[in-house]
Amino acid sequence: MKSVDKMTLGILSHYFRAAAEAMGFVLQRTAHTTFIKESNDFVTALLTPEGEQFAYSVAIGTQGFVGLEYSHFINQLAPWEEGDVAIANCPYLTHGVASHLPDYQMLKPIFVDGTLVAFAWGFLHASDMGGIIAGSILPSAYELYQEGIRIPPVKLYRAGVLQKDIRQFVLTNVRIPDKNWGDLTALLAALGTGEQRVKQAVAKWGLRTVEACRGDLIDYAEARARALIERIPDGEYSFTDYLEDDVISDMPVRIKVKATKEPGGGLHLDFSGTDPQVGAAFNLASNGRHPYLCLAMFGYFRSVDPTLPVNSGLMRPIRITAPAGSVVNATFPASCGVRFALAQTIYGIVQSVLAQALPGMVPALGAGQATILAVSIMDPLSGRRQVTVVQPMVGGSGGRKQGDGIDGCDFSQGALANTPVEAIENEVPIVIRDYRVVPDSAGPGQFRGGLAFQIDFQVFHPDTILTARGMERFRFQPWGLAGGAAGTSGDCWLNPDAPNHKRLGKINSLTLEAHDILRVRTPGGGGYGNAFARDPAAVLRDVQNGVVSIAAARDQYGVVIVDDAATGATLDAAASEELRRNRTAKSDRQFDPGPGRAAHEAIFTAPVADALAELLYSLPSGMRYYAKGKLYTSIRALAAAGETVTAAMVSAMKPDLMAAMGLTEKVRLQAASPHGV
Fold first, then answer.
1. What residues does 387 pair with on adjacent strands?
2. Which partner from 9, 228, 514, 585 sits 20 to 30 angstroms from 136, CA to CA?
3. How far apart are CA 51 and CA 573, in angstroms?
4. How does pLDDT run across 383-433, given as a tens digit for each residue?
5. What CA–CA distance (Å, rounded) separates 657 from 495?
6. DSSP string spanning 564-580?
7. What strand order describes the sheet that includes 318-321?
8. Beta bridge partners of 103
9. SS3 of residue 197 by DSSP
């Protein structure tokens, strides 16, 4: 098909982006739950008939789903008719379009004079999808069946007629059917807006122009993305990081990435050596290729070239190797409710790859997490539970070469908005007692990290159930960059100001009693550059603003601040110069992972971790998580006895491990074969 001229392409690029954003604003303004209308956990876009995004909402909604592949979803329900609307939520049955069960996915075909021109698509996060716990997302869930109702791709509307049996099925199995249906009707309105805008485009520019434009926009975005990848120096770059545990154990989950620049502006991200899928809800059902595996690349593209069109073309230059059965490419029925904690960790890993390739361009690591606090409160009259999200708690971003990190807002979570206190208190019977940034929570550096957030909220009903998914960086701090120090860890307390207060750390599920107060603190971002090179005037300003203490100014930055009752905080320049001259400067190493990760890697060195992964993948997939627990116990026991664990020692554990699990030689050989068991 003949391409459109550049002028027309530019006009239609903006037109269709505006159409996708109009869909998003319709959804936001008509939704029923706070997580949609306030926190913006949704996306709207326009797709080609083959299932590629040619227009994506940028001004509103999350940016984490650029480049999803919809062809399997679409083909399962062909043929399509005008007035059809499809719905689904299962990660495995949609081949990765849905990433966990609470995300309703909806597709509507757009026909003009009998020709399928496009699909309007959107997703929203439902505050409840049934399952083992109110809110549906329990970090310790070990299989998908516990996480809620599974909806395969199915038509909710056929030729404009609501399929009442499908609607009943979708709503019968959730705790807040009225609110879920309210959100779904808002999404239906959004899809209708997309349909209207596409038909208007055809009426104005003609069918052939719109059809040609769809592919041209995707090709154009791909070409621009490849040009940006070409700026990366040739070579291989690698980095390893961790989910610090999987909630049901204290075993970190290792994610290893090797990035290789390829000819023609391509990039290969190889996740070989990453840990197998886990027996908790942190797995990603990626189908081997998913935007969550390369989100930091989209951040790089948009930072370097803000005018870049956002559509599936950005995903095309990126080739991904994600071993089946790994935590980044889980197989059914692995649970995946907290999959975004993994996506955040991967974001930081790819960010670190870019930091190696493009020094000075990339910030230090931010909080690397979004703690989603959800409460389930019993209605004493009906016995039913009201479920809502209290707040998405995001920590500070990393310091940058050109400035400090952003307080309470990480770069990878910029689209996730705070819920206003008034809105949440109107929604459920709780009171927000305190909501603030945390002093001394930023990683020190020439440019400090962003400060952490802290919230205190009080409940008034007994038997209130709280879940907190996505809590990360409680043990392994956000890394500092270019001599900057690691950020601070997150934490959590019950009744923090009471004599019987309790430090909770990470939460899986927590039952609160009437008048309990919960305090949650997020991590602070890592620092950038040597803290002793920070402008003393900037340190003084932070002290005056109450975000850095006088003690931290002295200990972390070598800056002496005098607090005078008459004049307030002032800088003692001479004493600061003397202190900096006589103290040892902070390390100038590229990455500062903090003491938590350093302690883990003192035992689980890179060779040991590689040998451990190799051993696990030689076992039947169903036995790997159990075997990992056994191996961790053995390795830690050796280290506690003073042994230096080696890769050879790990490999030698295999026969005893096989015997302990009752695996025969035949099963071992089958597991090691290319086809598995």
1. 376
2. 514
3. 62
4. 778 888 888 888 899 999 999 999 988 887 766 778 888 888 888 889 999
5. 44
6. ETTTEEEE-HHHHHHHH
7. 236-243, 253-262, 266-270, 318-321
8. 125
9. helix
Single-letter code of the amino acid located at 577:
E
- Give the DSSP per-residue string, 95-140: TTSS-STTEEEEEEEEEETTEEEEEEEEEEE-S---SSSTTS--TT
Give the number of other Cβ atoms within 10 Å of residue 385's Cβ: 19
Token digits of residue 564: 């005078």
Written as six digits, the tokens of 386 are: 């009201």
Which tokens is 490 given? 């997150």
* CA dist., res. 561 & res. 536, Å (int): 9
Asked whether the CA dihedral 46, 339, 478, 597 is positive or negative, the reply is: negative
Dist CA 74 CA 299 (whole Å): 28
Residues counted in the chain: 677
83 C-beta neighbours (distance < 10 Å), count: 15
pLDDT tens sequence across 513-561: 999 999 999 999 999 999 999 999 999 999 999 999 999 999 999 999 9
C-alpha 520/C-alpha 628 separation (Å) is 31
SS3 672: helix
Residue 415 has φ and ψ, to the nearest 5°, of -85, -10
The interaxial angle of helices 207-230 and 6-30, nearest 10 deg, is 90
Contact between 247 and 468 under an 8 Å Cβ cutoff? The reply is no
Q: Which of 567, 486, 491, 564 is nearest to 527 (CA)?
A: 486
Across-strand partners of 437?
453
Please report the DSSP string for 66-96 in residue order: TT---HHHHHHTPSP-TT-EEEE--TTTTTT
Residues 6+ apart with CB under 8 A from 157: 83, 84, 85, 163
d(CA 160, CA 121): 16
Q: Which residues pair with 432 in a beta bridge?
A: 457
Burial class (CB in 10 A: 0-12, 13-18, 19+), 606: middle
Rounded CA Rg of the chain: 26
Alpha-carbon span 552 to 505, nearest angstrom: 24
pLDDT tens figures, 268-321: 999 999 999 999 999 999 999 999 999 999 999 999 999 999 999 999 999 999
Question: Which residue reads 């889980």 in tokens?
Answer: 330
Structure tokens at 22: 């109009």
In percent, the amount of the chain with pLDDT more than 90 equals: 77
Closest CA to 102 of 125, 121, 122, 86: 125
Instruction: Kindly tell me the sign of the dihedral angle through the C-alpha atoms of 404, 407, 412, 417.
Output: negative
Q: How far apart are CA 382 and CA 372, in angstroms?
A: 27
Q: Are 133 and 509 in contact (CB under 8 A)?
A: yes
Nearest Cα neighbor of 461 from 519, 384, 521, 372 is 384
List the single range of 103-112, 535-544, 547-556, 583-592 with lowest mean pLDDT.
Answer: 583-592
